Please model this.
Amino acid sequence: MTHSRSHSETFCSPEASLARERYLAEHTTQLIVLKCMDGRIHIPYATRTPLGIFRPLRNLGGMFNLGWPYLGEVLTHMVQEAVAAGRRSLIFITYHFSQGEESRGCAGFQCDMAAAIRHAYEIRAQVEETFGTLHQTVYPLVCGFETDEDALIIHGIGDAVLNLGTWDDANIARLPHHLQTLLPDMPASIRRDLLPLLIGNLEHIQEMRQTARTLDIEHREWIICIGRGFDFLHIPNIALIIGPYSPDLADPIQKAAGIISANMSKGRIPNDGFLLLASAPYQEMGVDRARATLKSRFLSQFAAKVIASDYPELARKMVVRTAVLNWNTRGLELIE
Model:
């Protein structure tokens, strides 16, 4: 909760608010990112973009399906909201891996990078089926994230890729031409707004190379988060985040509970308890907040019931908290 409050204070600060307003005035493309729950996947940080510009959708293992009713509804609403304001949308469909050690890759795909990439392209095809293949309003971009250096890998036409981990500052001047060759079907305005993200990532990579990082971080998750509003939790190996998108929520909850149980049995975390935290966002007081309260309460009760059924011993160590997130302040508010 302290970390959440700090994130909200930073988000609401005058400097951060003005930075967002200035950025949105200069760059009209809406940025959406589909990503894994892994706390290492912090795209705003890795691209040096102000907080609140990217609209994240996070899920256990980074697995999504636009056929899921709620996910399709959320994504369509985001796109239509942008269209109403005369804006295009760039959707980052991400996968992640470690170049130094395969076992530091995505656990959701058993660290199989090829499988993660195939899934990303499946989502891309679904985005095209939903919003069109000409990409003039919505552009689905498959994007890798190398977690050792926070480097972006942009997938273009055919097998062409742009791995920013192999570039340096001397190549920045070549980026505009390289992007046009790599993504010839991308509208010029989206390509123009993508460019500063890639430049920011190049600068970030150089900084990471000068910083001592602990890469072999052991899994020590002790929180299961279910719902939306956990973007403040960009801390590696602390929380397992389950988005409320799949119609079969029981499956990821069971998997998350299994990970917590294994962490306890192997001594990676104390066996005296773990946190189940549910959250739902709201934008307006009144009906919208009341609806979010009901949704969050349902999610916490549903998850608690699944865990109690499948892991009764673990359930006795469960601390349940239910919250709503004020989307305007990014403030997490406990209700139970």
